[in-house]
Amino acid sequence: MCSVVLWIVSDLTTFFYIILVLLQIAFIQLSSKNRWRNKIV
């Protein structure tokens, strides 16, 4: 029972970690797009 709970918790932590990484990548892409727009303007 305890091992199942630990597995679920570790799975959630990895899930949140993946979401954080994806958010960082999206934020970097958005900022780079804004930079290109600023360069064009």
Structure description:
The protein has 41 residues and is mainly alpha-helical. Helices cover 95% and strands 0% of the residues. It has 1 helix and no strands. The chain has one helix at 2-40. The radius of gyration is 18 Å and the shape is rod-shaped. The mean pLDDT is 86.
Measure the end-to-end span: 60 Å
Overall SS class: mainly alpha
Report the average pLDDT across residues. Answer: 86
Question: What share of residues are in beta strands?
Answer: under 5%
- The portion of residues assigned to helices is over 70%
The overall strand count is 0
Order of helices and strands: H
What is the radius of gyration? 18 Å
Poorly predicted sequence stretches spanning 5 or more consecutive residues: none
Sketch the major β-sheet. Answer: none
Query: What global shape is seen?
Result: rod-shaped
Number of helices: 1
Transmembrane segments: 6-30
Keywords: Membrane, Transmembrane, Transmembrane helix
Features:
mainly alpha; 95% helix; rod-shaped; membrane; transmembrane helix; transmembrane
Task: Please describe the topology of this protein.
Layout: H1 2-40
Q: In summary, what is this structure?
A:
The protein has 41 residues and is an all-alpha fold.
